[in-house]
């Protein structure tokens, strides 16, 4: 029987459909897929071949490939003639998951413009920062985010109130994609800021298409190993402003003719499993918190018909070996293909992937580097470390972002010579398998969302009663980590936790707002250099909060 490694070697050999060879990428020699697509518009035009097959499905709407392409052409025409959107311009999208989000994305990139996926959980100041940074020609938003944006110089198109009329007005427009270079920017997605402001990771057409070609190769490998690849229906339950939902689901399903079943609204385990049942979902890529809710159902899981589910994966946050074992027990029909991965927004896709077999052998691994990606573990001086020695995980490949939008300082700080990206994560490599020992510096991973302490501290410190503050992550059985704030008040200050919480809620997304607070007049612990000692802070937070 063909092994996975044998299938990959055969399919990527010279002359094979997924041949990998070396080319110049932005001045550096890198391994690339030789027969890749060169633009996202190329995918879009080919999707008409899938006809009336379902592309996007919700409980409220079903959109086939032909209808989707027609709506994309209509919206693109409106953006071009009514708002002057052209190559290199930005179109911001800020909305909860819905089919119109995806239509807006494809309409934007078909014009050679840059789709700016804004975090739909942002507070008003964060949204306005994103708009100021990227200067879009137009903002496409649902009504709640339209209201949040307030008065703007940029035109705002409401998904509910404006888009239906716009599409109707331009329906019948022939698709007319703009020519682009594969290294032109296509998408900006935001990451939490290490220094207090969200940063816009900028992905080129090449970056996004790298994700596609990895998945196409995966499908071809699975087919060689006798795993059926037809009739797939993928659950889309993570936000479209994340690479997991946009690059690695919505884009790829359009390219291969699969269906994306979109969960609307907040994550609710009963509604999600009823959707899986009703739509006969076959594939689900989840964050650990979601799978934790599945496991918690216990015997009640039998109330749902999940027999269609045949592939399960976990990503976006670390998951414990215990959770993986519990998931296999709860969903045995999907356990044969239960995998995990390690990636980050800057990489546009997973950097490493662990198969079910690899997880069985080593539950702590996040797998091996995907084709065309290089992974090294380095010391503080940038030297490559031997197997088993902990250091900083560094990545290199054609899928790595162009940089942070209009932030050359942050881009320079995160890069090393010859196209290497410094993740800030600590890990070890052994026989090509990566283990992550701790995520980026002080990063808090709350339910699959990244929270950088500096961003939250910046807001808390703006309250007049606060002398100094620090934010840390503390263990949480459901979310993985919770956000905790240790606040030193001014000697004459009079304030309560509720007032500080309201102050923070007004400025940043709710998932970043501390749920655990310690108010004190004692100074924060510091090390010999005078910096706040975060390792001591975590211990203090655990002790004080209990």
UniProtKB/TrEMBL annotation:
SUPFAM superfamilies cross-referenced by the UniProt entry: Acetyl-CoA synthetase-like (SSF56801)
One Pfam family recorded for the sequence: AMP-binding
Keywords from the named record: Ligase
Source species, domain of life: Bacteria
EC number of the protein: 6.2.1.3
Domain AMP-binding enzyme C-terminal residues, every copy: 455-531
GO molecular function, one term: medium-chain fatty acid-CoA ligase activity
Coiled-coil boundaries: none
Domain AMP-dependent synthetase/ligase, first and last residues per copy: 46-405
Top enzyme category: ligase
Family stated for the protein in its record: Belongs to the ATP-dependent AMP-binding enzyme family.
Protein's name in the database: Long-chain-fatty-acid--CoA ligase FadD13
